[in-house]
């Protein structure tokens, strides 16, 4: 049976209740079924994409073929990460603290989101059947990932399930969840994630390919679809990211306070409980090897999320000088594909703090030694060989486990002020949801 906490969580995910998640008593049987292992999920997606024949459809067919709407339950799938029986998996997923590496979970979530999106757009709801139209489905962004439990047991099976909860013309929202048994054998809800997927032409990634629509069978499903539709509308409105009058006043009052501490005109002074934002920078550089590629020959988005998460976690840990727990990930954007051979740079900043909570932003950029002049032209001609192109943005909310009052971060430059306000919004929204 579900714990009371898990039952409360289900009230927020009513569109998942048909079909119901697997019962704890059946997890052992489920985890030994090779068709439900997470590796099978990944391999079946690869095989499905490999069978795609983009030249078998004419341009007219791509535009006129009737795509019947699906139901939410049509794409529902569940798989297991067999940590109780697979010792190699245990080692692969084990973190330095003795819990499960959340970075590895992010990779599985990205694979699962792609898998579910392909199921939604396959003939007869199975990846053994061909695509209804030739398409490449990729992750455009991650709307949100919320964690309900800090530590995940490293030797108990993890159940991952998900389904498409919104479909537009060429974009979809996929909702995913994670479950694991607790000490008493009750099924706990660990995590909920919402991925935004897009469908593109395999022969020309700039062209959109239509996806199957979504029809609601119950009022709850209709509410879920409408909420996601509203999110897509807001997401496309840049005015929602502009600072409000209240935020302008907040910055003004902050600098009045900082300058008021100094005997010298217009010199800002920090207290012992504050730190300049630019001094929180922590960076790492990677070379993109073929082992990190996805089924399309690009660098796997799950790998990018894992590296960004691990950098953000390290930065937050150094900032508060103690253990931290990951609570949420928001507004993860995949702006440009990353190619094999690119030099990949991750730069992190602590953008906002409140009590024991820390907001960290990670920006990913690429440089290519063979295309430096082109990159410089795209980016800024004055940058020369230092030119980079932005590819990804990640935002993480961390909680200090040992220090209830971390240093207050303060922006010194205008570019950091915008990051500060963005971090404040994200952290406040996370606290409203989780606390």
UniProtKB/TrEMBL annotation:
<keyword id="KW-0677">Repeat</keyword>
<dbReference type="GO" id="GO:0005739">
    <property type="term" value="C:mitochondrion"/>
</dbReference>
<dbReference type="InterPro" id="IPR033120">
    <property type="entry name" value="HOTDOG_ACOT"/>
</dbReference>
<feature type="domain" description="HotDog ACOT-type">
    <location>
        <begin position="79"/>
        <end position="203"/>
    </location>
</feature>
<dbReference type="GO" id="GO:0047617">
    <property type="term" value="F:fatty acyl-CoA hydrolase activity"/>
</dbReference>
<comment type="similarity">
    <text>Belongs to the acyl coenzyme A hydrolase family.</text>
</comment>
<dbReference type="InterPro" id="IPR029069">
    <property type="entry name" value="HotDog_dom_sf"/>
</dbReference>
<dbReference type="GO" id="GO:0006637">
    <property type="term" value="P:acyl-CoA metabolic process"/>
</dbReference>
<feature type="domain" description="HotDog ACOT-type">
    <location>
        <begin position="278"/>
        <end position="404"/>
    </location>
</feature>
<keyword id="KW-0378">Hydrolase</keyword>
<keyword id="KW-0809">Transit peptide</keyword>
<protein>
    <recommendedName>
        <fullName>HotDog ACOT-type domain-containing protein</fullName>
    </recommendedName>
</protein>
